[in-house]
Write a structure and sequence with these properties.
alpha/beta; 8 helices; globular
């Protein structure tokens, strides 16, 4: 478990260039500024932003290093969406789309994205309403958004049509998987978190509703 994050220790999760690290520093600076007036993250995690949030987000890129088209649902403070956007700046022909229904959080996402000189597209919209506006990504991400059955409902327009998902989940993930029994079929790979004990990233593909 990484606790004291440096550029070098971030590279233990995913290769981060000096330029990308500087983008992430600008992002974290903006986040701490906005945190004073807008509740973006739990105040108890302010001192652990690099480990608890940034490095945790980089795990998605470590699992799918060749993916270039990303969609992040319920982006909130930008984890993992803006972290992915910072890294994708180094590659050509990339697409990182963030969906956030809260207007203040969307404003923060746009400002932080500009501060990083990154290329994310932010949709200030409900996920259900955004589905018809967003092209099919390769990977859909979500972190601290909803229970797994609800995530399946929200992400189904993309995952049922060929996209895969990477969902961060805590220690109760087995119970959430059980709640999906009888409702959905899917392929599942469980990746243990390298950051948070008892946490996982669920890799979902070939999602199908049993009612379909």
């Amino acid at each position: 478990m990484i606790t004291n994050l440096t550029h070098q220790s971030l590279n233990e999760i995913y290769p981060v260039s000096r330029e990308t690290f500087e983008r992430l520093e600008r992002y974290v600076t903006r986040l701490l500024e906005w945190q004073e007036k807008t509740n973006l993250i739990a105040n108890s995690t302010k001192g652990e932003i690099w480990s608890r949030h940034v490095a945790d987000s980089l795990q998605c890129l470590a699992l799918k290093p060749n993916v270039r088209r990303w969609l992040d649902l319920g982006s909130g403070a930008g984890f993992p969406g803006l972290v992915i956007s910072a890294c994708m700046k180094a590659f050509d022909e990339t697409s990182v789309t963030l969906v956030e229904s809260n207007q203040k959080k969307s404003a923060f996402l746009r400002q932080a994205n500009r501060a990083m000189d990154a290329n994310a597209i932010v949709h200030n919209d409900r996920i259900e309403a955004a589905a018809s506006k967003i092209e099919l990504p390769e990977i859909v991400t979500a972190r601290a958004l909803a229970s797994l059955p609800e995530l399946f409902n929200l992400s189904s327009p993309w995952i049922c049509n060929g996209a895969q998902a990477l969902f961060h989940k805590g220690r109760e993930y087995r119970a959430e998987l059980s709640e999906c029994d009888g409702l959905w079929t899917y392929d599942l790979i469980i990746h243990e978190s390298r950051i948070e004990p008892d946490s996982v990233i669920l890799e979902i593909s070939n999602l199908r509703s049993k009612d379909a």
